[in-house]
Structures are given as structure tokens and as C-alpha cells.
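Box 3.1 A note on notation
Throughout this textbook, protein chains are presented in two layers. The first layer is the amino acid sequence; the second is a C-alpha cell string describing backbone geometry. Keep the layers aligned when reading.
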Amino acid sequence: MRLELPPEGVLRPNNDVDPLPYYYNRWVGWLYRHRLQMGLDLLPDTGARVLEIGVGSGVLVPTLTKRYAEYTGTDLTLAGGLDRLVAPGCKAEFRRADLLADDLPEGRYDAVVCFSVLEHIADSPGAARGLARALAPGGTLVTGYPMVSRLMTLAFDRVGFRGIDDHHVSPPAKIAAALAEVLTPVRRVAFPPVAAALYQCASWTKR
């Protein structure tokens, strides 16, 4: 499944800290796109229903709705124009939803994707339970989040995002431990593939 990024100007940010401009940046855009492709590569070839937690500006909507027959995209705030990004033939809906509120259907989705969300949630166990609850038995969860470290802080500073530590409240070890309590790990990839990685993606399955 290859990432299909809409042309610049099509997507709209869903809030004032949406990283949308960085996907098209001539210097760091490749990294923002690559981190999503790492996660997409972990999704299975089968399955009909997908849930995206943290749809944001809709960067992944064209790609996911082209692959899955049913798509649900959630966020605390929804950007405008998301419906126009849906691929023909896909049954899609967008809803405001809180991962900690258990207001999504239980055991419905064959795949759940959650990129750059979990590091913003202090209650990692609650977030993990919410993700596991939505996933169908045998389904696949794909998560992606940055390595919360001094190196990551410097990297965000370099691209003009100041104060990222005010947003990243849960480190990777805490997130992974919470997910491992309710799901089974399958695979993990990181970029760069070294100890000082900047971003990691992982796949999990429901027990």
C-alpha cells in the first residue's frame, strides 16, 4: 500500500499545530512521508474495515479509502473537506471521538491505524484499552510515534517547531508497555534503524 499524498493545497489543517506544511517541505517532507509509509507497510493485505485515530488534515484518507471498503476517521477536531478525499466506492464516515471515552464500536475494525497520537496522551493504559476495544479479534493495530528524547527535541527545533516537549507527554517505552498489556506485538520498525532513531512504527494483534 503506497502513500498517495494529495497535491499541495488540497488538504486543510485541523488545528493551529497541524504538521501539514511539513509533508510538502522540500527539506523534511520526505521524512514526514516516510514515517507514514513505514506504518502502511505493516498493514495486512486482508480486511474490509479500517479505523484511523487522529485523522488530522486527512493525509492518509485517500490511501486508506482506496484500500478498504469501509473507513472511519476520528479526531478531537475535524478538518474541513475530508469527505472530498474519500476514494470512489468506499463507505466512509468522519466523527469527533475521544480515544479515552470508549465511544467507538467494539470489536468492529479489521485494522486500526494511529500515527503521532499516543505520545500526546498521558493516560497510555487508557489509550491502549481504547485501541484494543475497537479492534476485531485477529485484527491489526499499527501505531507510529516519535522517539521522545533530546535528539527529537533538537530535530523539531531545526524544522521550526518550538516547544515540542510540551506536546509529547508519553515516551515510547510507556506506550509500548501499555499496549503490550492488551495486545500482542508483531513487528517494529524505526527510522533510522539505529539506537538514535527519530520515529518508530509497530504492529500489534488482538489476543
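The longest helix spans residues 29-40. The beta strands are 49-53, 70-75, 91-96, 109-115, 135-146, 183-191, 199-206.
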